[in-house]
Amino acid sequence: MSVVALVLAAGRARRFGFDKRQARLPDGRSLLQAVLQTQLQACDAVIALLRPDDDWGQALCADLGVEVRLVPQADEGMGRTLATGLSALLADEASGVGPPRFEAALVVLADMPAVQVGTVQALIHAFQRHGLPACPWHGGRAGHPRLLPRDRWPDLLDLSGDEGARHRLDWSRACRVEVPDAGVLIDVDTPADLDG
Fold this sequence. Notes:
It is built from 5 helices and 8 strands, in the order βαβαβαβαβββαβ. By secondary structure, it is of the alpha/beta class. Strand 1, helix 1 (31-42) and strand 2 form a beta-alpha-beta unit. Helix 1 (31-42) packs parallel to helix 2 and helix 1 packs across helix 4 (117-130). The protein is globular, with a radius of gyration of 16 Å. The protein starts with a strand and ends in an 18-residue tail after the last strand.
């Protein structure tokens, strides 16, 4: 049951002051590099969803061997970015070209570099056992990334704005995966967030 990571990296990060994906973590990697490398270690494939004019992101993905899908309507919000990625996966399958059929997509936010490889693996294993959407929990709170089985994708193809899968699926029925990883709750919105 193969799983593809869809990394939502087409936002403008206006609150950060500059392209936060390029901000450096204490280990010297860029924020986006750390996110992509985590997914490369755990998933069968990784696709970064980027803006068409994102030369820096495309160059980074080329260096890491990550496939890129461009999102011309990225300004419509994260929901549109996710819908574009899922639509592309289904179109590839229908055309008979491109990657193999994926049984699930892991929806990954590009501003959460602290998520651990073991957490991603735990979500995938939960899906392989139960066939349900999967969500990480830490300290009594739901976090990200979230895993979407293929049979749920058609419900999300018309997303727009900042409406994401959390508004369309009943996550109370998802597989709740308890993890010792506080990174599932930590997103980077300002430069101060890089310091912990």
